[in-house]
Amino acid sequence: MSADATPAPAVARTAGHIRLTSHTGGLDAPPIVWGAATAAERGPVIGTTTTRAHRNVIGTHSGSYGVYRALAVAAGALSRQHRADLTNTSPTDLIGPHPQWADPDAIVSIDPWGATVADAFGDQIAAGYDIRPTIAVTKAHVILPEIADAIARGRLRPDGRFLLDGGAALVTKAAIEPVWYLPGVARRFGCTETDLRRALFEETGGMYPELVTRSDLEVFLPPIGGQTLYVFGSPADLSNPDVELTARVHDECNGSDVFGSDICTCRPYLTHAIEECILGAQRGGVGLVAYSRKEGRALGEVTKFLVYNARKRQLGGDTADQYFARTECVAGVQDMRFQELMPDVLHWLGIRTIHRLVSMSNMKYDAIVGSGIDVGVRVNIPDDLIPADARVEIDAKTAAGYFTPGPVPDADELKKAKGRGLDA
Ligand SMILES: [Zn+2]
């Protein structure tokens, strides 16, 4: 290839001086007063990468997808100056404001005003500030084979309102990106803000120097996955404690949720919860599934698959008594999900009572109740929905304190190899 045919290096398109964010860019950034009662007093969250003087947060928008945006800029496919045209993008359903929004400690990992920035901060957007939504709310039909099966077996009945004849359930859904108020996050985890900032800086390989150089910036847009809400029935009913609320807080498990792996109960639990949510809506209540991107107990799939191999190759086979130990050997902890931030989304929705919580996790239950939300009945997965290979997981969890209305397996039971081998 001749020198003439060589494309210009992609970096040339963004050449010029490097825009450091580690020192204040000026005095044009509106202040953020976390937990203020109105959007105007709270102020907009501005993570723009183009006008440094406007930035009032650490990090940038879109969670982990911010890295793909950087690739698009590097490849010359995206203009750094692009501004979102928010015409017709406003939420299909208005959420809040709820009293919890005005409590700086009730919500520390979501921007409660994130869905309505185009309205709440219209003047600043018109004045040239790049203010982006961190929440989007829309409508959808969700169609799952398990729901069609429940209809065929007579457990669910289409009503033309919440569930259509073809098996589609009607939902309102919301996508939420993380927005962390660092002082509040530190309080949740019982550490100092300084220690939190330092760990975030060092454990990401120094990705965000402002964590340690800009103590004046208290809000961080972390490069992690967010969450998605699915509401069955009217979202306005979620904050009314007199309307029966059926809810599941589900942590992502791509292997089961999407690809149907039978080593765990994630998808059966999720579809069971959706069935319960539809039934609840048909009873005059409302249903909620809050889905968090915390793959493999927030350890990620590589760690998860390493653990599967370690479980199935260990002496004596895959047993419940070694279930948590095998994870800890590989990952250093049994679980990295830390449910401390999870209730934020429930408070964003104004929830005060969950009448039926579809979950066996004691960690989720403790976090929800500890945050001041009442929980009525705990609904566990029916035994006939548990795949045979997932018996190891269920036995280990119930023995460790997860909720079960049935017997808790004893030490002898936990030693029995119940999981399939790798070659089976
Ligand atoms: Zn799973």
Automatic annotation (TrEMBL):
<keyword id="KW-0547">Nucleotide-binding</keyword>
<dbReference type="InterPro" id="IPR036144">
    <property type="entry name" value="RibA-like_sf"/>
</dbReference>
<dbReference type="Pfam" id="PF00925">
    <property type="entry name" value="GTP_cyclohydro2"/>
</dbReference>
<dbReference type="GO" id="GO:0009231">
    <property type="term" value="P:riboflavin biosynthetic process"/>
</dbReference>
<keyword id="KW-0342">GTP-binding</keyword>
<feature type="domain" description="GTP cyclohydrolase II">
    <location>
        <begin position="239"/>
        <end position="379"/>
    </location>
</feature>
<feature type="domain" description="GTP cyclohydrolase N-terminal">
    <location>
        <begin position="17"/>
        <end position="203"/>
    </location>
</feature>
<dbReference type="GO" id="GO:0005525">
    <property type="term" value="F:GTP binding"/>
</dbReference>
<dbReference type="InterPro" id="IPR022163">
    <property type="entry name" value="GTP_CH_N"/>
</dbReference>
<dbReference type="InterPro" id="IPR032677">
    <property type="entry name" value="GTP_cyclohydro_II"/>
</dbReference>
<dbReference type="InterPro" id="IPR000926">
    <property type="entry name" value="RibA"/>
</dbReference>
<keyword id="KW-0378">Hydrolase</keyword>
<dbReference type="GO" id="GO:0003935">
    <property type="term" value="F:GTP cyclohydrolase II activity"/>
</dbReference>
<dbReference type="Pfam" id="PF12471">
    <property type="entry name" value="GTP_CH_N"/>
</dbReference>
<protein>
    <recommendedName>
        <fullName>GTP cyclohydrolase II</fullName>
    </recommendedName>
</protein>
